Amino acid sequence: MRPGAAPRTSVPWGIMHEPRSRSLPRPIGVLLLAVVYALSASLGLSLAIPPGFATAFFPASGIALAALLLGGRRLWPGVWLGSFVTNAPFLFDATTPARAVTSLLVATPIGAGATLEALAAARLFPPWDREAGAPLGRVLDVARFTALSAFACSLTSATFGTTSLIAGSRLSWDGFGSSWLTWWLGDAVGILVLTPLLLAAARPRQWVFRGRGVELVLHQLALQGFQLLLLSGRLPAHGPSYPLGHLITPFLVWAGVRLGHFGAALSVFSVSLVVTLGAAQGATPFTNSTTQTTLLFVQVFVGSMALTTLVLASVIAERRQAEAALARSRDELDRRVAERTADLTESEERYRVLVEVSPDATLLQQPAEDGVFRVVYANAAASRLLGLESTSALIGRPTFDFIPPGREEIARQRLRDALEHGSVGPVEGRVVRVDGSLLEVEIVLARVPAGRKHALLIIFRDITRRKHIEEQHAALYREAEESIRARDEFLSIASHELKTPLTSLSLKLQGLARSLRKAPDLADKIAPSLDVALRQTRRLNTLVDELLDVSRITQGRLELRIEELDLSAVVEDLLERMQETATRAGCEVRLDLEASVVGRWDRSRLEQVLMNLLSNAIKYGAGKPIDVCVRGDGAQARFWVRDRGIGIPAEDQERIFQRFERAVSVRHFGGFGLGLWIARRIVEAFGGTIVVVSAPGEGSTFTVTLPRG
């Protein structure tokens, strides 16, 4: 007849997770809840005080809430069914058919009120982690449970129930107030007493604190014995004027402090049950002049006792949890401190070993009482480099004992810089050995903390051998530069000296050729030899020009005479002049020229690049076609020369652009190996690039890209 609170899997406002009652099918769970609810409701009504519609302690409400919390809200039909089964026979009046139907109709809203009470209480029940935590484990949870799930939600059942009784003419308006109050408090007390006990019992490992099972049994025996003595009326001071019921309080405090949630809830339940039984039989320390007043006293006593005990148990539980958390934190801190100490010890040992075996000298210096920095630590390398037999001979010596005369101020400045900025170096300097000799060293100074003051870590290594090698390298470099200068000067002079007789010889040969054209009878005999002499003269002239260009480029004297040119016209003009050479080599030159590719370049240098690429294509691709293409591409112009000659291996494709480098043997193909090097330098002087794509036996393609300037 009374409502009970309905649990839900994930408690209000985001409770943890669904209860694991999945192994019990819903119909069986609903039926089982209905049976237990009906039995407990019948027990509660059997203890009711006239007129019999309400009881001081209604256990069914607490059972309903615990069932919904543990089994899920899906079991709510069991609450309604159990309430209906309990109240229908209790209210049934068969005197007339109409009264019989009315009796059944009254039981229906009473069951609805009990169901709504259980569902609302489950919804408002404080959240908890079913895997790790106990329900009502905090004082705030107990307060929320008491105010919302117990007292607030019980208003629903009390209102539905008393209103239904009045509507069914089973209760008069004169008795509405007292019945409603008793109903409300009875349901609230039932929730306060039964729900915590059932939730705690559902977690057997949390029944008592470890090792206190015997204490729980002894406590219950003592409590039940005292309650029997109290109800027997054999105490010297007995009667309504003596509130002996409050003597139970020490037992409840004992349970709350020592026996955990289960022990506290079990004690509250046993006291509530005994006091309610006593009130029903008129044997209670709270017996008063009226039944209603006695009932109210019992409800207030049971409710306040339950609330006080739950709060006390929660306070103790929170304290123990805090102590356990503190102990875990302390253990974790101790573990971390131990690990950190071990790490620091290991790190310190590694550092010590590294410093000791290091070939670099290490000194640690601290300011003494006189303000002078003195050595407090030195490794073996320091004593060895400074000419001492042991490191102990260095301890306590001032820094300036090892500074060469006249360099003290520089050393002081470096010390000040290291203290101010944290480090100095590496810098080169000198130190004085104990025998007075000087040692060239590289020095690093670093500031390190040492209490309230700072110490200086000085690390230095012997670089005497390195300095000697550097001096040798510098001398060799100077000699090499002088040799290169002399070579370039020689090339320049030799080229100029060769240029003069070659020019004169070329002019004489050309004059002779013109004369031969006037004497046909001699031309057939002398013309072939004269033609060979002219070609060789031109070849020698080209070689001399290349040597001159090497000199100009290495000395940074390559001059460009920039003018506006049509790249296609330049290529076409050059090919006309080289057509005879190509024909003699059996090469067909195929042109693909885009019209009017205009830019600003040096014509003679551009022709020099083109001639070098075409000459190479004819030389290495004799007897095979050659493709020459010109394209304009926005702000750039491109031309490429493709032959189908011997090709160039991938590993040689970058090397051929270096001075005096060739991809093939000079015995098979002549030349200095300067053409492509000069061509790249000219192209780069224009701001462009030259690249090659080639494979052995498949020919080569040289592509030049130039900005239009």
Give an overview of the whole structure.
The chain has 709 residues and is of the alpha+beta class. It folds into four domains: 26-326, no CATH class; 358-462, 2-Layer Sandwich (Beta-Lactamase); 468-554, Helix Hairpins (Orthogonal Bundle), CATH 1.10.287; 562-707, 2-Layer Sandwich (Heat Shock Protein 90), CATH 3.30.565.10. The chain has helices spanning 26-46, 59-71, 76-91, 97-124, 139-167, 176-201, 213-232, 249-258, 260-281, 291-357, 380-385, 408-421, 464-518, 520-554, 567-584, 603-620, 675-685; strands at residues 361-367, 373-378, 423-432, 438-450, 453-462, 562-566, 589-593, 598-602, 626-633, 636-642, 689-694, 700-707. The strands form three sheets. It has a five-stranded antiparallel β-sheet with strand order 2-1-5-4-3, with helices on both faces. A five-stranded mixed β-sheet has the order 7-9-10-12-11. It has a two-stranded antiparallel sheet with strand order 6-8. Strand 3 (423-432) and strand 4 (438-450) form a beta hairpin. Helix 8 (249-258) runs parallel beside helix 10. The radius of gyration is 56 Å and the shape is elongated. Mean pLDDT is 76; it is low at 1-22.
Distance between the termini: 103 Å
Number of structural units classed as domains: 4
**Poorly predicted ranges:** 1-22
Estimate the strand proportion.
5-15%
User: What structural class results from the helix and strand content?
Assistant: alpha+beta
Main sheet record: 5 strands, antiparallel
Radius of gyration: 56 Å
Query: Overall mean pLDDT score?
Result: 76
Tell me, briefly, the overall form. elongated
Q: What is the helix tally? A: 17
Strand order of the largest sheet: 2-1-5-4-3
Helical content stands at 55-70%
Order of helices and strands: HHHHHHHHHHEEHHEEEHHEHEEHEEHEE
E-strand count: 12
Transmembrane segments: 28-47, 53-70, 145-168, 180-201, 251-275, 295-317
GO molecular function: phosphorelay sensor kinase activity
Enzyme class: transferase
Main location: membrane
